[in-house]
Every structure is written in C-alpha cells, then in structure tokens.
Design a protein that fits this description.
Number of strands of chain B: 10
Strand order of the largest sheet of chain A: 1-20-19-13-12-9-8
Distance between the termini of chain A: 10 Å
CATH architecture of chain B: 3-Layer(aba) Sandwich
Shape of chain B: globular
Structural class of chain B: alpha/beta
Radius of gyration of chain B: 15 Å
Distance between the termini of chain B: 21 Å
Order of helices and strands of chain B: EEEEEHEEHHEHEHEH
Largest interface: A-B, 20 and 21 residues
Oligomer: heterodimer
Strand order of the largest sheet of chain B: 2-1-10-9-8-7-5-6
Number of helices of chain A: 19
Helix content of chain A: 25-40%
Number of helices of chain B: 6
Helix content of chain B: 25-40%
Chain lengths: ~550, ~190
C-alpha cells in the first residue's frame, strides 16, 4: 500500500484486476484480503465496512446505517441496498421542537437522537443475496483490528478532541473511546476489546443477536437511560431493503445511485443537469464564473430539497420531475450571471445547515468487474457518544437528520427514515462502468461529488487529482443563501471577483474535511488499468492488484 | 511525564523535570491565585480538556465557553485556551470577528482588574492555522505564562512570541502532561 510522502499530493493507487479504497488502511487491507481469498466485491465491501467500525469508529459502525450500490458485471444488473436507520415507533413531528432551546442537544447527544441502526441488516442482506461469504467471515478482519489495535492518526486524535465534550457526557466509564478519560494523541495505541467481543458474538449467533438478543436489550437500555424512546420492538422489526437505483445522465454518461431517502444522488443528478448546459470548460475550473454559477445552482437545488424530499415510504417525492432536463433548464434560466438571487424560494420549511462532516465511503472492484460503492455513517463524529455497556460500539444520532420544522416533509415520524445526504454512485459510459464514487460530508456530499466528476470528465484531471483539488460549497435554507465556503487554496483574485458580484465568501482550511473525504475507483478499460483515488482530507487510502 | 521550559534568556532544549523555574524574574511555581476562569480564545474543544485537567489538579475553576468581563468577578486568574475552531464558532453562533471582540474585551478587563492571564495551547499541530495564529498573535503577548503541547510549536511560533515578550513557555509532550505545570503554577 504505497502512499506519497506528502499526504495531499495526488496519488492514484494502481491495479490491474481489483481495487479497494476506503478511509483507513486497515479497512482497505481487510477488503483486499477478502478479494484475494476469492470473495467477490460484495464480500470485500462488507469486510471493509465492518473493518471501518474497528479502525474508523468515529464515522460509522454497527450502531449506524447507510446505502450501497452494487453492480454485478455478468448479470449487467445494478441494485441498491438501503440500510438507513429508522425512527422509533414513538417518534413524532414535534419530539424535538418541544425541547425548546435544548433541541440541538436532544437531537445529537441524547438517547432521543438515536435511530434504529441498520448497518448489520444491510451488510447481512447484501451478503446473503449477492455475496459468496458468510457474515462471520466478513467480520473476521474487523475483529482482528479491534483486538490487535493500531496506532492512531492525527485525524482520529483531532476528531476525538473535537467531540470530547459529548464523549465525556455520554460514554460509560472505561470506554475505549477515551484514553484514561482524555482524548487520544496521534500515535497512541487504540484497542477496542469490547467491540471485538460484540462482533464475535454476532459472528457466532447472527444479526438476530443484535436485533433481538442480549445486544438488543443493551441498546434499548443505553438509549432509554439517556432519555430515548427506542423499544425492543423497534429493533426486532427493523429490516434493510433492496431498491431499484436512481438513474440520471450527464452528457454521454449514465449515473446509477441510491434513491430517496438518500438525497445525495438525486441532487447530484439535478445539479449536473443544470450544469450540463453551461460552458464550464470555457469558464475554467474554479474560476469566479464557475464557482458563482455552480453556487447559485446549489442554492436552487437545496430549495427543492427542503420542499420535496422526505421518506418515500410516507411522502410523495416528484423524483422524475426533479431529475428531468426540463426542470434543470428552468432552474438554470433563473440564475443571473452577475450576482446572487434575492431569494431561492421553493422550500417553506428550513432545515438549517448541518456542519457535521461525518460518515465514510468505500469502493470495491473485484476481478470479475463487480463493483460496490458503499456509504455508511453514525452521523456526527462519534454519533451520540452513547455506547451500550460493554459493547464497544457507538450509537448514531441520525434522528438529527429529520427537519426541525414539524410541518416539513422530513419531520420525524414513527418508522420514518430521515433524509440522508449520502450519494454512493457508479457511472457508466457506453454501457461500461468506469467510475465508482462516494463521499462523507453531510449536505456537502453531492456538491463535492459533482465537482470531482466535472474535474474528471470536463477538465481531464486524474482521479485522485480530481479528489484533492480545491472545493467549494454553498446552500440555501428558508429561501436565504448561505455563504460560499471555499478551501483556502482558491486564488484571492477569484474570491475578490466573487465578492465583487455580491457573494459572501467563507475561507476554510486548505484541505478541510468539512468538504468530505471522497473515495473512488476509475476503470480505464482501454489501458486495462484501474485507478483508486482516496481523499487526504481524512485518512483515505487504496490498494489494488 | 516531562515538560520543558523556554524563556528569553534560557537556551532552547534545556529540559527541566520538576521544581521551581525562574523566568524573567518571576517563578512559574505558585505564582497564580485561585479561583480561575477558564475560557477559550476561538471556541476550540480543548477548553473542555483544560477544565478536566484543572479538576484533576484540584484547582478551583469556573468554565465558561463564552465568558465576558462580568464573569471575572471574584476571579483571581484568567485562563485562555488558545485555538480557533470553525465548528466551535458555528455551534456558538459566533464568527471570528465577534469571538475576537469577546476575547479582547475579556483580556482588557482582566488587565484592568490586575488579573494575570495564563494561556494554554493543547490542540497540537492540528489546532494551528491562519485563523488560530491571528488570534494568538493578539492575545498571547498579554499572558504571564504559556503551556503548549509540543507538536503545536513545531515551527517555533510560540517560542518566538514568548521570547520577545519574556513570557515563560512550558512545552509538554502530550495534553495530559499539561496538568502538572498547570497545578504547580497556582498557589
């Protein structure tokens, strides 16, 4: 697993037959090992996903959920597994609003913030339907990592410090997630024997142990002790579901991605549709005109998101219209070349910006050309910080992904899945898969993925160069624009030009994990070579053979 | 557990284990009085760590993330935990300008009331950057002592300011190591 001396220097991992990219080297190793032992891409992806619970536990794990897009080469079939968490049955639209000034705390740091986890159900469904290995086999790597431990990266240490207050409040005494009651330093050794024990139990008894057994009882107890409403029935009735992928196009390329309640793919298609008619190459990558137009488009897309997107099992979403070229043309026609709009009206129920950069993404390509793009999360880093006694895993705060406004289409409700920003995707050209991609980054996900796609397809950048390139982001909420956030690598003349247009600019770090941590695989069939790209904003790496 | 003192007239690299250390004519042991007000300069997460270290050291402290001059009443020392966090600022509903204004008015009030300012930088290298450095450049020269986690001073940024102002600087390897010099600095 070679890596550049300068972690930010663009570096494509090279393979001829198979590739794994993920947010931690040990997860890549677990996925690659599975492939080398004859497992397929689904087996490799679940092995890597489980390994991330041990190696990058602050971002995802069995206490959370996600989405995966699976492409089966021989069958020429692409499908989606939705393992997004669900609200407990006692959830109600006003459950957070009624908390008044303490609403944010209840959403993110209490038992009320915990939605019913879906990760294990999703991994299990994918393996049973499309894998060749058992869940026990897929968990072996994760168990070894949790047991053997590893030296912590600066990324882990920084996030551990950032979330210290929440961890201090919620973690049981002696938890592995603090080092003698203080955050870990870079280079400290991290072990999680409790997690190893939990995963071993699940390997032996199956996911029933998690949803109906002793672990279920511990989860309910931990959630309720912290003011939550989850019941044993909520866990017992949870199931992951298989869905048809959402399909969009950008020029001669087809995009297959996760449909709602994942909104990342939906909005990526809508965003690319708007961009499709613009002379982006003429404007130049990250020029003032480019950043201005794309930011305006983002704000209009966010207005649609506020108005329309909820759990499709409970609300009707006009998906076909939102991803139509006609709708995109109408939105593009509203955008002014010389400055921002006064209002970005569509939504009436503001969501508010979420700052969490959370979540994780991995991609796996096997020797038969099968591909998995998998995004999973426990929402905020370290989730709620609640860890059921003696289990070593963290519970999500995905209830925070429900809207604050009880009238919103995305208000909490019994059994509802909160809208997710995740957008794992696979792109095809001439019927052949050529790019698998995804990212964490909360509401920045589809913006970041779109910029990477444009960097590759319009500006000719290599995959990792496209991932490492400076990013920007904007949004709207309640009809009002947010600032344009940019990485500090943007030239000052571009920022000055944006300000001269009336845009508010917010300068962030040079490589800021606020904008996500994307991972991708590009298949260059004509060169018979595979490129893996992994984001240095976090600890992304790749390996192939 | 070890820490290093560097002041204007003490050569860099001199290591001290424990005990009184002369620094610009003043001792860094038993110098400051309790109770202390702990706040951040930049809404960083390390302010919570500082409070835990103070608690473990048995010090009498009050933690207030958005302390104002009014919070200095009955306090004997102001402890500023240095480091800007955009996430923290966002959560507090502040921007850099407002935070700078809050911190500077707090430091000014402390000086007016003859309260010494003690600075801590506990975030290491990752809690550096232009936004952090700008605020430090304004606040640190007004401090009477600085404790810094070594990796945050890799470029000598803190050493340079402390040397020019004669501020005792204590480098520690790890965050937890800051507890002892903090404890010893107070009466």
């Amino acid at each position: 697993m070679t890596q550049p001396a300068d972690r930010h220097a663009p570096h494509n991992y090279i393979g001829r037959r198979a590739m794994v990219v993920a947010a931690h080297p040990l997860a890549v190793q677990a996925g690659l090992e599975m492939l080398r032992q004859g497992g397929n891409a689904v087996d490799g992806a679940i092995a890597a996903a489980a390994a991330l619970n041990s190696a990058e536990p602050f971002a995802s794990g069995i206490g959370g959920g996600g989405f995966m897009v699976i492409h089966l080469a021989r069958e020429k079939k692409t499908t989606v597994i939705n393992f997004r968490e669900k609200a407990p049955r006692l959830a109600s639209p006003r459950m957070f609003k009624d908390k008044g000034e303490e609403e944010k705390e209840w959403r993110t740091s209490s038992g009320l913030g915990v939605a019913v986890p879906g990760a294990l159900a999703g991994w299990d469904l994918a393996l049973r339907k499309y894998g060749t290995r058992t869940l026990a086999q897929a968990l072996a790597g994760a168990i070894a990592i949790a047991e053997g431990g590893f030296d912590l990266s600066p990324t882990f240490s920084t996030i551990n410090k950032d979330e210290y207050e929440r961890l201090l409040k919620n973690l049981p005494e002696g938890s592995a997630y603090l080092n003698g009651g203080l955050p870990y330093e870079p280079g400290d050794r991290f072990h999680n024997p409790d997690l190893a024990g939990t995963l071993r139990l699940i390997a032996a008894r199956g996911i029933k142990e998690f949803y109906q057994g002793e672990l279920a009882a511990k989860i309910v107890a931990a959630v309720r002790e912290k003011g939550g409403i989850m019941t044993a029935e909520d866990l017992a009735s949870y199931s992951a579901v298989e869905l048809e992928p959402l399909r969009g196009t950008y020029k001669d390329m087809t995009i297959l991605t996760a449909p709602p309640p994942a909104s990342g793919g939906l909005h990526l298609i809508e965003f690319l549709n708007i961009i499709e008619g613009w002379p982006v190459r003429k404007w130049g990558r990250n020029s003032a005109a480019y950043v201005h137009h794309l930011s305006e488009a983002l704000r209009l897309v966010f207005a649609d998101r506020e108005r329309y997107v909820g759990d499709p099992d409970f609300v009707s979403i006009p998906v076909d219209r939102l991803i139509s070229k006609e709708h995109a043309a109408a939105l593009a026609a509203r955008i002014r070349a010389d400055g921002p709009l006064d209002r970005y009206v569509a939504g009436e129920h503001g969501r508010g910006e979420k700052d969490a950069a959370n979540t994780t993404h991995l991609c796996v390509l096997d020797e038969d050309g099968n591909i998995v793009a998998l995004t999973q999360s426990i929402n905020d880093f370290f989730g709620t910080g609640i860890s059921p006694q003696g289990t070593g895993f963290l519970l999500n705060d995905h209830m925070d992904d429900f809207a604050a406004d009880p009238e919103s289409v995305n208000a909490p409700g019994p059994g509802h899945r909160p809208v997710s920003s995740m957008g794992p995707l696979i792109m095809f050209r001439d019927g052949r898969a050529f790019l698998a991609l995804g990212s964490p980054g909360g509401i920045r996900i589809f913006s970041s993925l779109t910029q990477i796609i444009l960097n590759v397809t319009e500006f000719g950048l290599g995959l990792d160069e496209a991932i490492e390139a400076p990013r920007f982001f904007s949004f709207s909420t309640g009809g009002r624009p947010g600032p344009i956030a940019v990485e500090s690598r943007f030239p000052w003349d571009v920022l000055s030009a944006l300000q001269a247009m009336g845009q508010e600019v917010e300068v962030r770090e040079a490589y800021d994990k606020y904008f996500g941590g994307a991972q991708g695989i590009m298949i260059l069939k004509d060169q018979k070579i595979i490129h893996g790209g992994a984001d240095s904003r976090r600890d992304g790496v790749g390996a192939g053979y | 557990m070890k820490y290093k003192i560097a002041v204007a007239f003490v050569p860099l690299g001199v290591l001290f284990a424990l005990g009184p250390i002369p620094a610009n004519g003043q001792e860094t042991v038993g110098v400051f009085e309790q109770p202390m007000l702990i706040t951040s300069a930049g809404q960083n997460a390390e302010v919570q760590i500082a409070a835990v270290l103070a608690k473990r050291a048995g010090l009498n402290y009050t933690l207030s993330k958005q302390a104002t001059a009014a919070d200095l009443q009955n306090m004997k020392t102001l402890v500023l935990v240095l480091g800007t966090s955009l996430k923290g600022l966002g959560a507090a509903g502040l921007d850099l300008d407002k935070e700078r204004e809050r911190v500077m008015s707090l430091v000014t009030a402390a000086q007016k009331n003859q309260l010494p300012v003690v600075c801590l930088h506990l975030g290491g290298e990752s809690r550096r950057g232009q936004q952090t450095d700008d605020l430090i450049t304004e606040t640190l020269p007004l401090a009477k002592m600085l404790i810094v986690v070594k990796s945050g001073n890799g470029d000598g940024f803190f050493t340079k300011i402390c040397q020019s102002k004669g501020i005792p600087l204590i480098e520690v390897e790890k965050t937890a190591d800051a507890q002892l010099p903090l404890q010893k600095a107070f009466k």
